[in-house]
Amino acid sequence: MQIKCTQCAADVEVQQDETFIECPFCASSLFLDKRKVVFHYVIACNFKPNEAEGNLKRWMAGNHTVKDLDKKAQMAKTSFYYFPVWYFKTKDTAGDKIYIQPAASTSVSEIKKLPIPAGSLKFYDQKSYNDDEIVKPDVLYDSAKTWLQSSGVNLDTVAEAALVHITFYQFYYYFNNQTYTALVEASSGLVYANVYPAKSEAPFRVLFIMGIVAFLITSIICFVLGFAIGDSDGGFINGEIFKVFAYGLVSLPLMIMAYFIAKKV
User: Fold this and answer.
1) pLDDT tens digit string along 174-192?
2) 136, 84 Cβ separation under 8 angstroms
3) Of 19, 42, 171, 206, which residue is 20 to 30 A from 54 by alpha carbon distance?
4) Cα→Cα distances 125→1, 28, 38, 104, 185, Å
5) Buried b vs exposed e over 55-92: b needs ≥16 C-beta within 10 Å?
6) Smallest Cα–Cα separation from 29: which of 14, 11, 7, 1?
7) Which residues, 6+ apart, have CB-to-CB distance to 4 below 8 Å?
8) DSSP secondary structure string, 32-69?
């Protein structure tokens, strides 16, 4: 079977069931779908395993996760692989825009938000990579195109489509007898996780309600005192003056409580 190279338009011989192809004329890396031939790129790995784990630990120590997750989480397993995504570039009057759609099954929907700078795309060379680390795509080009259209994108504006393999470290870790998964994109070091031990919002919500109630009661008391020592006009002014000092006094314990909640949760 022959296909047309998308780069040089030469006829390239393809064996049956062959999907990853290199054009013998221009050395372009191609991916053959049942209905489409597109460029095949890969994004290089810039992080070693210990460096990727360090990025994960820093993310765990951030504001979105429970306190000391980076110290309490127990690493269970790490895997490294090249994950395939469909890469679409559209061009219209508003300019260029990139859309990403996973080309294989994954539970981490955040992959769709991956930033892929054009300068980081390198042609895939099958000889340079371990085949066991290459995740084969199971989402066809037409399916990805249908998703793109359902997202409100005019398919006539698609100027470029490609299959891109992105490097990931996948970490499995235990916390409170539960297993969690996080991905570290090995080119940028960014961390992606759909489910993780997040900070509890309940204490902050309680503190928020307490703040509203405290300031409301304080306002009422200030105006009651203001009108008690002055007439209607003077009472209002007195109340506003009292509020300035009273709000400062009320804010102090609330800020102390917020500090300790943030330290504990």
Assistant:
1) 998 899 999 999 988 999 8
2) yes
3) 42
4) 22, 9, 15, 20, 20
5) bbbebbeeeebbeebeeebeeeeeeebbbbbbbbbbee
6) 7
7) 10, 11, 12, 37
8) E-SS-EEEEEEE-----HHHHHHHHHHHHTSSSBPTTH
Query: What's the token pair of residue 32?
Result: 């053959």
Question: What is the token pair recorded at 10?
Answer: 């030469």
Report the alpha-carbon distance of residue 253 to residue 126 in Å, rounded: 63
Contact (Cβ atoms closer than 8 angstroms) between residue 59 and residue 50: no
Kindly state the tokens that stand for 209. 């309600």
Residue pair 69/189 in contact by the 8 Å Cβ criterion: no
pLDDT at 265 over 60: no
Q: How far apart are CA 160 and CA 75, in angstroms?
A: 40
Contact 191, 102 (CB under 8 A): no
In this structure, the number of other CB atoms found within 10 A of the CB of residue 235 comes to 17
Q: Encode pLDDT of 123-153 as tens digits.
A: 888 888 888 899 999 888 888 888 888 888 8
Are the CB atoms for 157 and 131 separated by under 8 Å? no
**What span, in angstroms and rounded, lies between the C-alpha atoms of 11 and 1?**
10
Task: Please tell me which of 62-66, 78-82, 234-238 the model is most confident about, judged by mean pLDDT.
Answer: 78-82
Which residue, among 168, 80, 84, has the nearest Cα to 124 in the 3D structure?
A: 84
Measured in whole angstroms, the distance separating CA 230 from the mean position of its chain's CA atoms is 58
In the block, residue with structure tokens 């309600």: 209
Contact predicate 30/8, CB 8 Å: no
Q: What residues form DSSP beta bridges with 30?
A: 21, 39
Q: Which one-letter amino acid corresponds to residue 141?
A: Y
